[in-house]
Amino acid sequence: MIHLPAVLGGLVIGALTAFLGVLFTGAGHGWMGALIPSGMSMIGAPLGLLAWSMRRNATGKPLAAFVVVWAAIADTGLIVATLAEESSHFSRMWNGDLDFVVAWAVLLMTWQILPLIVVLTSIGVDKHPPDADQIPAAVRALSNLPINSSGSSIPTETRTSHLDTPHDSAKSSSP
């Protein structure tokens, strides 16, 4: 089932991100590096918000993984393109239109972080503990060890340390 509000919200985020990215170019005299992730936001934002809205079912997790890869490609393009152009293009945006750069970055991160959360929370999370027959005998034996008052499963009498025994040079030397 497609969650229409998520897709529509993603389209709005993607369109705003793309619009700001086009504004940054300054008719070819501005920050061109923002065009790559801004254009990719038109697809990434709707899919990212859709993955977030479907995070509790089986379809949402692979979709989120796809969007994470899509976002990594977009961010790599941003870095490469920004480093390839003159630094004055980005610094002009940073110094003159910081509000727009921050708004653009927040919009970009929104559709990138939500699917990343879906992927990270689904890795290695098993909500059901294993049955007793699935746990090796050695692990079961360790889990049944009694815990003493010091929080250790090793009885206090059997633990030894060089700090526990006095070091008297007179006693340890032989005649």
Index terms:
175 residues; mainly alpha; 64% helix
Strand-helix topology:
Blueprint: H1 4-25, H2 35-53, H3 60-84, H4 87-96, H5 98-122, H6 137-143, H7 169-172
Helix pairs in contact: 1-2, 1-5, 2-3, 2-5, 3-5
Describe the overall structure.
This protein has 175 residues and is mainly α. It has a domain at 4-122. 64% of the residues lie in helices and 0% in strands. It is built from 7 helices and no strands. It has helices at residues 4-25, 35-53, 60-84, 87-96, 98-122, 137-143, 169-172. Helix 2 (35-53) crosses helix 5. It starts with a helix and ends with a helix. The mean pLDDT is 77.
Summarize the structure.
By secondary structure, the protein is an all-alpha fold.
Please compute the radius of gyration using only Cα atoms: 29 Å
Based on secondary structure, the structural category is mainly alpha
Q: Extract low-pLDDT stretches.
A: none
Number of strands: 0
Whole-number average pLDDT? 77
Q: What is the strand content?
A: under 5%
- The arrangement of helices and strands along the chain is HHHHHHH
Tell me the major beta sheet: none
Q: Count of helical segments?
A: 7
Classify the helix fraction into a percent range: 55-70%
Q: What form results from the Cα inertia axes?
A: elongated
